[in-house]
Amino acid sequence: MKSVVSKEYINFLNEIKSRIVTARIQAIRSVNKELINLYWDIGMTIVKRQKKYKWGDSIVEALARDLGWSRNILLNQIKARAYHYQKSMPKQHNFSKTLPVHRYGRN
User: Is the pTM of this model over 0.70?
Assistant: First the structure.
């Protein structure tokens, strides 16, 4: 059976591929936005609880250990919270270079 691929089919295929790529990019942006908000909130919550319960810096070590994260991840979250506490949070900010992404399943 001979298959003839028409110009219309190629255009249609390219449209679908383009939609798939666009949807994937939007999904990644959405996930990154939620993770950024989560990390910022975790940093803020740590600082508030440290003040409320008079916890020292050892709480960061304990949380990092029990969450399976590095100490630096939590410290970056606290730094981001402190930075934005002093300045108003811009609508769009690229935190992907300043906040690490947790790699699930790694200890």
Answer: no
Domain range list for the chain:
7-97
> Can you tell me the mean pLDDT for 22-38?
94
Q: What are phi and psi of 2, to 5 degrees?
A: -90, 135
Q: Is the pLDDT of residue 5 over 50?
A: yes
Per-residue confidence (pLDDT) for residue 4, from 0 to 100: 73
Residues 95, 73 contacting (CB under 8 angstroms)? no
HEC string for 74-99: HHHHHHHHHHHHHCCCCCCCCHHHCC
Measured CA to CA, the distance from residue 31 to residue 12 in angstroms comes to: 29
The reported pLDDT for the residue numbered 84 is 64
Which residue type, as a one-letter code, is found at position 65? R
Q: Which tokens go with 38? A: 């989560």
Q: Are 43 and 79 in contact (CB under 8 A)?
A: yes
